[in-house]
């Protein structure tokens, strides 16, 4: 299924992909030939500061390994093209010189294979003349040419590797190398046609394309090189028949996606996600999911049009396109498929709408609902320092797990709630991101009583939720009576109140009498309002306050606390707006 979707996407991209068995590389040197075969070496290297000006282009490529490494067609390292041995500056060993000579000889033979087939082509004639005249033996090779530098060949003003005949010859060479000794035809698992089958996948994923906490390496999507790994002891692709065309195009389009900034999401610590659609459809839902600052208006429109009240006009605009998402990790030199999503595009839009609906946080001061980007939901489980989160302190792999939760419409991983509560208690820091993540955890709980509204739920009788509301009112009493305090009730008692509210809140209620007495003297209106609020809350308890709270109950405590505070700011904002309207009238 995965390889089929990749090859379908390759068919849609068409000429956007490089030629078969070509990959984009940086060119360091150009071997310039004139029509008579006379050669000069031109330097195309750039400094690290000017890396964006480097000359890059698709060139022949296929995975190669072993002790007798074969050459690429025309574009290769200086060791192959020019016979430059490794460690050239420090007196290379005889072994290095012999290997450089062997590699150059195989490169020359492969280049002449193409040139020999093009008798009437002036560019092929120039290449034959170059080798007949001694090749690099008569060339002035600068001392700073390194064996690993990439060298391309140009005749007059044309790159040889871009010639259509070179591409055809190179594709034939790769099929010979990757088709095995017999290159028997068979039924391709991907396209369902009878065609010559691959022995191994010709192209790996580029080095560094899949972030990993270990050493970066190239990676193969399908690789079985040990008898113990394969079915019935069979190695390579015997039990996974893939034709040359499907194998080459699938890996070409995968590398294309991994190089794209619009269809890729790398995770800082490990892995990467790529996505695409079957048709050339609008995948703005993914941009909305991964945006650094999601637009509340766009989110509100998505929720309203696709989840709450779909209109006939909206329904007519929805198509039956398909959305595909692939999450990859890297284990040594093998790719690990961590997740594969294959759903209708309409389901994706519903899923993203549900994600934001489940974690939106109401801002009472502004009267708006705020939404948090997915990277910040992961980062808020890290350390908070001076009101900001320490970069890179989020738990390993949490962002990828939250992406999985978003696209699968499942609860966040079980470890998220303990991690979040631990950081809230340790940092004494509570902001929109942490409230949003907490609300997401509760709203995706299997127990409906854990689900919480965006704003204050005046009808909720859950004891832990009421305890959070009560703590917010007690804090309000203290800060109203003593506005200049350096250490507030929250700074001193929030953790104990959230874990053991029974004794803590009872004692704080007694202590609040002194603050209320002061308010009756200095701010009678505020004293009356706060006394009424606290009396109303105590009246809602059907039984004694709980002695201890479980992690989920602590989450409801924090939500009650936040909702009560948001409701307070909402009342203040509305009163201010009414006052301004009255003054203007």
Verbal overview:
The chain is an alpha+beta fold and 585 residues long. The strands form six sheets. Strands 2, 3, 5, 6 and 7 form a five-stranded mixed sheet that branches. Strands 10-11-12-13 form a four-stranded antiparallel sheet, sandwiched between helices. A two-stranded antiparallel ribbon has the order 1-4. Helix 1 packs across helix 6, helix 13 packs antiparallel against helix 14 and helix 15 crosses helix 19.
Secondary-structure blueprint of this entry?
Elements: H1 2-13, E1 22-26, E2 29-33, E3 39-43, E4 56-60, E5 76-77, H2 78-81, H3 94-116, H4 122-132, E6 150-155, E7 158-159, H5 164-178, E8 185-187, E9 194-196, H6 244-259, E10 264-266, E11 272-277, H7 284-290, H8 296-308, H9 312-317, E12 322-331, E13 334-344, H10 345-359, E14 361-363, E15 368-370, H11 374-379, E16 384-385, E17 388-389, H12 398-408, H13 416-427, H14 432-443, H15 463-481, H16 489-499, H17 501-522, H18 524-540, H19 551-584
Parallel strand pairs: 2-6
Antiparallel strand pairs: 1-4, 2-3, 5-6, 6-7, 8-9, 10-11, 11-12, 12-13, 14-15, 16-17
Helix pairs in contact: 1-6, 3-4, 8-10, 13-14, 14-19, 15-16, 15-17, 15-18, 15-19, 16-17, 17-18
